[in-house]
Amino acid sequence: MFGIGDRLRMVKVKGAAKLFPPDEDREIPILAQFADYLSPEVCAVTVDDDGLLAGVSTDPKEDDTPFVAYLPISVVESLGDCRTVQYSKLQEVDRLGPGVGLLSYEDEYGIPHKVAFKFNPLDKPQRLQMAWDELNLLKSLPPHPNIVPFDRIVLEDVESQVIGFTTKYISGGTLDNINVPFRFEWLQQLTQLVDFLNLELGIMHQDIAPRYLLIDSDTHKILLFDFDWAANGKKRLLEGRDDVTAVVFTLYELITNDTQFTSIPHLNRTLDMVQSISEWACSLELDCDVSKFRNFLNDWVATRKSDGDLGTISQRTQLAYMAGTINRARVQCTFRAG
User: Which domain holds residue 265?
Assistant: First the structure.
């Protein structure tokens, strides 16, 4: 039996053990086949040996939806200056992935907005803390042309509990599904952004990959999103997840369509694995010769290495209000309540 987050509820998937091998998330693609056709009252589904729907249950005893003790915004001082929107004001347009939806709403002036809504439906302390850290980091970031802008905090209607946040919706799609020539200026934008985050703000994204880079169809710029693994200063800084290495592997994967390195744990990846490959077999249309991309990338990596900043982040311009603005003890206590 497995639970899957969907529309802030859980749907249990039951079936033969052979359908659900250990350490493989098979339940999500199986449920996705018919999730749009399930009534909101459905708590569990049974699938046959082929993963096809064999039965549904609305029995409340089957409901494994966890209780998540979301904090009332009134007790979180760090969010006091943020704009908010009630969950009831949001209209779902589409589902972008687990815990992420495409929604629309009208603001106080009747102006329509299309946004990505991110929430955490799981009562797991680590994921809850990551969600709070990402929210507080994003709302404090200065505007940047290559970062998806923070929009609003989403509040539950009755007690004004913080259940998630919205960001501007970027319609161009991500780089892992690119259907236009890859531009040299996008690599320049990405390296400049990484330098800005690492060396100016003291932030390490720690999860840069094609799937987290969007193409803005209006500005033709790339934008980075999903900061839930980000390190702010030394807090949550993980070995092997530096952004410089991630950029190198990202560019290699994009140009060659070779995904063999994605299965290697970050801790075991080294720059030499891809930089030492004499020829990157190009399978993606580029706006200039692949040698220009590689030479620029190699020069950038060499500069970061020479400055001693490859896997570290500068402390000189830390945004003090981003680190520790939440009362951590109170948050952890509230998470465990209920």
Answer: 184-322
